[in-house]
Design a protein that fits this description.
Blueprint: H1 4-16, H2 257-268, E1 394-396, E2 414-416, H3 423-431, E3 435-436
Parallel strand pairs: 1-2, 2-3
């Protein structure tokens, strides 16, 4: 119950505003008009403010647990830091209100107008926001876990780093909203409008997106693992580096051909397939099985291929610029004349791989296993091969300007006519077991 001191302050404010209905000191203040009133820090839990006029009022850090604001006007009010657990805000007007840090745990906000409201770092867990209007609202870092947001309107809202996990977002409208780094794990977005949305690096594990509209959405780096995309529309969406593992799609899912192929490779592999000239730029193929395949002339620039299997695969003349090839199996792979400039091949298995004429300038090859590999005529300017295994590797006529071979295993490695090879460097490598064939 509200404390006496807070009720006295409320009564005084009522008297000062010349209320015609001579409100008594009870918990019922239905229909009162307290525009611009200051009730900050007041203990007003269980108070009935149904249809009250509190426009531009100050309720900073007030205790409003279980308070009833149904159909009230709190537009432009300042409620920052208020505790409003289980409050009734059914069809309340909170347009442009300051709700930063507000706790609305278990609150009823059905049909509430929160257009342009500031809900930064607020807590609205286990609440009801069915058909709420959150257009252009600031919900950055807001916690909306396990909340019912059916038919809610979030168009043009800011939801960066918000937690909307385990929520019901059926038919919600997020068009043009910003949800960078959002957490939507295990939420239901069936039939939701996510067109033109920004979901960069969003966590959408196990999300139900059946029938959702994601046309033109930016999902770069998003995790869609085990999500349901049956009947969903993703045409013209940015799906660079999206994790498609375990994603469900059906005959009605609208997906550009490139990303359908990525989904297929991630979930079914591409062992032995002919995929020469294929465009897989920016694809996330982490852990995919693409062994014994033909990817000659393929475009894999900026792709994530970590832990993938490319053993015995033909990648000749392929584009692998700045590609993540860490921990990849490239045993006996053909990478001749491929462009791997700036690629990361640390801890990668390249036993007996063919890299003749490959461009590896500024590539990272830390602890790479290049035993018996062919690197003749390769360009390794500024490449980092620290602690790499180059045992019996051929590096004839390779460009070694600025190369880092610190800690590398060089027993039986064959050098000769190399750019960047000084006499001092040559003598050091010979001591480490390298062989030089400089004579014609």
């Amino acid at each position: 119950m509200a404390n006496q001191k807070s009720l006295d302050k409320l009564q005084k404010l009522i008297n000062n505003t010349a209320q015609t209905n001579n409100q008594k000191l009870t918990n019922n203040f239905t229909g009162i008009s307290l525009e611009c009133a200051d009730l900050s820090l007041c203990d007003l839990n269980d108070i009935d403010f149904t249809k009250a006029i509190l426009k531009d009022a100050y309720l900073l850090c007030a205790n409003l647990k279980r308070a009833n604001f149904s159909h009230s006007d709190l537009s432009h009010a300042n409620l920052s830091g208020a505790i409003m657990w289980f409050a009734n805000l059914n069809h309340v007007n909170l347009k442009s209100a300051d709700l930063r840090g507000v706790s609305l745990r278990g609150a009823n906000l059905k049909g509430a107008n929160l257009e342009s409201a500031n809900l930064w770092r607020s807590e609205i867990t286990d609440a009801q926001l069915i058909q709420a209007n959150l257009t252009q609202a600031d919900l950055i870092l807001t916690n909306l876990r396990n909340t019912n947001l059916t038919d809610a309107n979030f168009s043009y809202a800011q939801l960066d780093q918000a937690n909307i996990s385990d929520a019901n977002l059926t038919n919600a409208n997020f068009s043009h909203a910003n949800l960078t780094d959002v957490n939507l794990r295990d939420s239901n977005l069936k039939g939701a409008n996510l067109s033109k949305i920004n979901l960069v690096r969003g966590q959408l594990n196990r999300v139900n997106l059946e029938g959702a509209n994601l046309e033109g959405a930016n999902l770069e780096g998003a995790n869609l693992s085990d999500a349901n995309l049956n009947y969903a529309k993703l045409m013209n969406a940015n799906l660079n580096h999206v994790n498609f593992r375990g994603v469900k799609i059906n005959y009605a899912t609208e997906l550009d051909d490139k990303w359908y192929l990525v989904w297929d490779i991630v979930n079914h592999g591409a062992y032995g397939r002919t995929l020469n000239n294929v465009d897989l730029e920016y694809a996330n193929l982490k852990g995919a099985n693409i062994g014994n395949a033909n990817l000659a002339d393929a475009n894999l620039r900026y792709a994530n291929l970590r832990y993938a299997n490319f053993s015995n695969t033909n990648l000749s003349n392929s584009k692998l610029t700045n590609t993540n090839l860490r921990d990849v199996n490239l045993i006996k792979a053909n990478l001749s004349n491929s462009n791997m400039q700036g690629a990361n091949l640390s801890n990668t298995l390249l036993f007996n791989a063919i890299l003749t004429g490959a461009l590896l300038n500024e590539a990272k090859l830390l602890k790479a296993q290049l035993c018996d590999a062919e690197l003749s005529n390769a360009k390794l300017k500024m490449a980092n091969l620290m602690d790499a295994n180059l045992k019996n590797t051929k590096l004839l006529k390779a460009d070694l300007r600025g190369i880092n071979l610190e800690g590398a295993e060089l027993e039986g490695a064959i050098f000769g006519k190399n750019l960047g090879m000084t006499e001092e460097m040559k003598q050091e490598l010979v001591k480490r077991g390298a062989i030089f064939q400089d004579k014609d």
